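User: ok so my PI wants both of these folded by tonight, can you help

Assistant: No problem, let's get them done. Here's the first:
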Amino acid sequence: MRFNEKAIIFDMDGTLVNNIRYHEESWILFLNQHGIDMEPENFAAQNHGTMDEMIIRFFGNDLPESRVKELGLKKEEAYQNLYRPHIREVNGLTLFLQKLNQDKIKTGLATMGIPTSIDFILQSLKIRDYFHAITGGIEVAKGKPNPEIFLKTLEKLNVNSKDTIAVEDSAGGIKAAKDAGMKVVGIATTHSKEELMDFGCCRVINDYSEIEII
């Protein structure tokens, strides 16, 4: 596909890296360790929102805030330990980011990840400096599929949604980006191309080698 927008906003998990199955596996193991039985086929429908929203969803809304944060950090630690030996970028990502930078196209990151998760990915891939704005899950009240995180990132970049494209891999993320007024390119890491088009993407790619900047 050919790209000629003024800005691009990336999701992180499943978009910069193909890591969703490691997130899911670590969640299921973490929940089982705390006496919460969760089958993989039942997890996907509940895998959305901020870390706090997910902890409350699984552990109940009567937890003190400090315990919610503590559990979130422990889950993140379990995920990083599981994924660290396997971490790699989606093919063509760094080269694409370099081309965007050369062409002075603004780049943003809009992820529900907490700061330690964002640092883990960006530092491991050595790509933090390519992003002009980074918005994480702790900065919004409502997670995807709510559009708040994309609206906040558009504001940070000082760009109009009609001049910006989002790259997403999930149904919730695609809905959030579209509700923020952007076109969405789907990346086929966790869903098929057909599913991503059904979710509302304007185009679908396998990896970043398939995008040409004009």
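One down. Here's the second:
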Amino acid sequence: MAEEQEIEKELPASERRLQQAREEGNIPRSRELAGGAILLAGVAILMAMTGPLVVKSQDIMRHGLQLTRDDAFDPFRMLNQFASMLIDSMWVLTPLFAIAVVGAILSNVAIGGLIISGKGLTPDFSRLNPIKGLGNIFSLNGLFELLKAILKSCVLGYVGYVLLRNHAENYVSMAAMPLGDSLNESARMTRNDLLTFAVVFFLLVAVDVPYQLWRYYKQLRMSLEDVKQEAKETEGDPHIKAKVRALQREAARRRMMEAIPKADVVVTNPTHFSVALKYDQAKGGVPRVIAKGADELAFKIREIARENNIPVMEVPALARALYHHVKIDKDIPPSLYTVVARLLAYVYSLAAGRGHLVQPPTDSDVPADMDPGIQTDADDGMQGAGA
């Protein structure tokens, strides 16, 4: 069953799934990168502050090794002096600790980004499940972490052994050096050793970071059902959306039909299209398409127009052009200004009883590039010639 689920989850995680994981505090992390960054930060602070650190350490040791007769016989004074040395040492090491903390934070931000989430503080009793814990131990990730820990222990242990062996003579010679020289030599060896460990750590990082990223995105992979469920949650149920769109179309159609009695003229292609035009002479401007339809809807538009004594004009090319190029409640394009103006002039002259004085527009008045019928006929002619 687990293998089937793994096979099903073949789709990459969506942006929403990745964002949800981040909100829950689930982001990729690499402990090896953090360890290497801390070591590298330690090397950087030692290189930048070797002199001041050595001088301050020398003062602390000199002050701590100065004992009076009263100090020797008063344990409380020795305890106070030890506490004073400890506090001074902590102040000396504060920059080292601070840069180490900054390095650890930046290393985690580098791979997973900065995220602040309280989800990780919420009690999760499923983590106490021993069966789940054993499953994690014997999983592929548990095996990788075990091998990585063994490899890291062996490599770092061997590097530490080599460094101690190489520094053996230095440790002996430091005992005979003055305090300042001994501290300088100790700081130099510590800096070099930390740098060596940092290089070794980053070799491990080169393996661990790609693995952690691969594992993170693998855990968030989605199945087809996950994608469908997410789509429902973000965009709503497709059936409900389809029903809403149908209701919206019906409402738009009802408003369109209610606007037809306000039209100045209805232009038709008797077999297919009807388009209702409205020109507001008081406001001027451009004639607008207030309703249009094809087939049964075109017939309904003509029927409503006749019931309301709206002129119905048969100009097939103009009807096709308006239907295909102008949306409802939009102005007609400039290329149709002339033919529509002739149409309205003819309609107004009919209303005034002077229709014989104005010629109605014809199909030839419609620009050829605006008439889909002409373009279709041209395409059919080319196909016939080719045949």
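Residues 1-7, 376-387 have pLDDT under 50 and may be disordered. Strands lie at 265-268, 273-278, 288-294, 312-314, 330-331. Good luck tonight!
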